[in-house]
Design goal:
Blueprint: H1 3-23, H2 29-40, H3 47-57, H4 60-65, H5 68-71, H6 79-99, H7 109-120, E1 127-133, E2 139-147, H8 157-167, E3 171-177, H9 187-201, E4 206-214, E5 217-220
Parallel strand pairs: 3-4
Antiparallel strand pairs: 1-2, 1-3, 4-5
Helix pairs in contact: 1-2, 2-3, 6-7
Length: about 230
């Protein structure tokens, strides 16, 4: 057996062990990512790539929500593999949104937090999303409201109000991200949110919450008693 054939045999045996350990629930987090990457890159050892992705982005939510261009800066990550990971992210986001058509799901904190982290955890610029809800708290639409810079995304109150009325929303949730990690709401965030809350209340629409994702952290203005 040649060295190349021996290497392929060892790799095949390793991946079979990964699959068996996955079925048994015995994989480390980076090994789960390694197994996933093995389907996109079948002819190369992808363990170093899985480790580097975790080291650079810090967690699975951040890896999946990172931009394709950022993923491709990691040695060994090609564009096709980055698109493969983004496809996994899209499938997961679609699954959460399907669940949010249930009247009670949006108020299940863990589900909602995971959705927000998956949506925004690895973004390198700020995005502002507005979630429009019906009278039973079901998701009508998750709208990308604005894309900003490293430390700012704009909120246009009149546009939120107009769109809420057009889709028949009875409440809204604001969600944005802070690319710099572990930073909560700014004073401006709180002031702008409470001003919009007053404007929405005037047309009988409730601003239920404003949330921010910062690295692997999730903050809620509602829970922090910043809404008035």
């Amino acid at each position: 057996m040649s060295d190349k054939e021996s290497d392929l045999s060892l790799r095949a045996g390793h991946r079979e062990r990964l699959r068996q350990n996955f079925l048994a629930g015995n994989l480390a987090k980076y090994e789960t990512l390694e197994l996933l990457l093995s389907y996109a890159i079948p002819r190369r050892d992808v363990r170093p790539l899985a480790r580097m992705l975790y080291k650079k982005f810090g967690g699975m939510f951040q890896i999946l929500s990172a931009e394709i261009e950022d993923l491709c800066t990691v040695r060994g990550m090609g564009r096709n593999t980055a698109i493969f990971l983004k496809t996994v992210q899209k499938i997961m986001l679609d699954g959460y949104q399907d669940d949010f058509t249930d009247p009670t799901i949006l108020h299940t904190k863990e589900q909602f937090r995971n959705y927000c982290k998956l949506l925004l955890g690895g973004k390198h610029v700020e995005e502002m999303h507005v979630l429009y809800l019906d009278e039973d708290g079901r998701l009508i639409e998750d709208q990308l409201h604005s894309t900003g810079t490293y430390d700012q995304a704009s909120l246009y109150g009149i546009e939120v109000i107009k769109h809420a009325i057009s889709v028949g929303a009875k409440s809204v949730i604001l969600v944005h991200n802070h690319p710099h990690r572990e930073t909560s709401f700014s004073t401006q965030d709180v002031e702008v949110t409470n001003e919009l809350r007053k404007q929405l209340k005037a047309v009988n629409i409730n601003l239920f919450d404003h949330c921010v994702v910062s690295g692997n952290m999730f903050y809620s203005m509602n829970e922090m008693k910043f809404l008035n």
